[in-house]
Specification:
By secondary structure, this protein is an all-alpha fold. The chain is built from nine helices and no strands. It comes from Rhizobium terricola.
C-alpha cells in the first residue's frame, strides 16, 4: 500500500509540473494562475499547495526535474567519454543544451535566473545554485575521467579547468536565454568554438 501511495503522489506531482510548464509556455509565467495549473493537473488547489507554496516553487521544481534528467543522461558520457577532449566536452554540453528547452521556455529560464539573483536567501535561489553546482561537478568529473585515461595532460588542474568550461557554457546559456531569436544550434556552435583552443591546450594528444 505504501508503494501505491508513493506512486500516486509521484503521479500527481508529475501532472502538476507538466500542467505548469504548459501554462507557463502558453500564457507566460506571470499570467499563469495556480488555480488553472491545479485544474489542468486534475487536482484541487489545496492538493497543489500540499506540494508547492507558490508558482516560484513550481518553477524551481521544473528546473530541478530538467537538471536531474540531464545529469542522469550525462552519467553515461562521463563514465565512457570519447577519448578526445573536444569531442567529449561537446557530447556532454550538447546533451545539456538539447534538453534545456524540453520543459522550460527561454522566458521561464529568465524568470528562474532572475529570482535566484534577486532573492539569494530563498529556498528557490539556494536550490537553483545547488543544481548549477551539480552540473559543474559533472563537467569537472568528465575532465578528471579524461585525465585518468591519459587524454588530458597529467599536470593540468582538472578541477579548475572543468570549472572554467562550466562557467563558460553556463554564461553562454544565459546569453542564449536573453535572445529569443537565437537558435540552439548557434549556441552549440559558439560554445564549441570557444572551447576548442582550451581543449587543444590541455590535450595530451596534439593534432598534427
Amino acid at each position: 500500500m505504501t508503494g501505491l501511495r508513493a506512486r500516486q503522489k509521484a503521479d500527481r506531482n508529475r501532472r502538476i509540473l507538466e500542467a505548469a510548464t504548459t501554462l507557463f509556455r502558453e500564457q507566460g509565467y506571470d499570467a499563469a494562475r495556480i488555480e488553472d495549473i491545479a485544474e489542468m493537473a486534475e487536482v484541487s488547489v489545496g492538493t497543489l499547495y500540499n506540494y508547492y507554496q507558490n508558482k516560484g516553487d513550481v518553477l524551481v521544481a521544473t528546473v530541478s526535474m530538467e537538471v536531474t534528467e540531464v545529469l542522469e543522461a550525462g552519467e553515461s558520457i562521463v563514465a565512457n567519454p570519447p577519448l578526445n577532449v573536444e569531442e567529449a566536452l561537446r557530447a556532454l554540453i550538447e546533451q545539456y543544451y538539447d534538453h534545456s528547452l524540453v520543459y522550460l521556455s527561454k522566458e521561464m529560464w529568465r524568470t528562474a535566473m532572475a529570482s535566484s539573483i534577486q532573492q539569494p536567501e530563498t529556498p528557490l535561489s539556494k536550490r537553483y545554485t545547488e543544481l548549477d553546482q551539480r552540473l559543474c561537478a559533472q563537467v569537472v568529473q568528465l575532465v578528471m575521467t579524461l585525465q585518468r585515461r591519459g587524454v588530458v595532460i597529467a599536470g593540468v588542474d582538472a578541477r579548475a579547468i572543468g570549472e572554467v568550461f562550466f562557467n563558460n557554457l553556463n554564461m553562454m546559456f544565459i546569453e542564449f536565454c536573453k535572445v529569443d531569436a537565437m537558435p540552439l544550434e548557434e549556441l552549440k556552435a559558439r560554445v564549441a568554438e570557444q572551447h576548442r583552443p582550451l581543449a587543444a591546450l590541455i590535450s595530451s594528444v596534439k593534432a598534427v
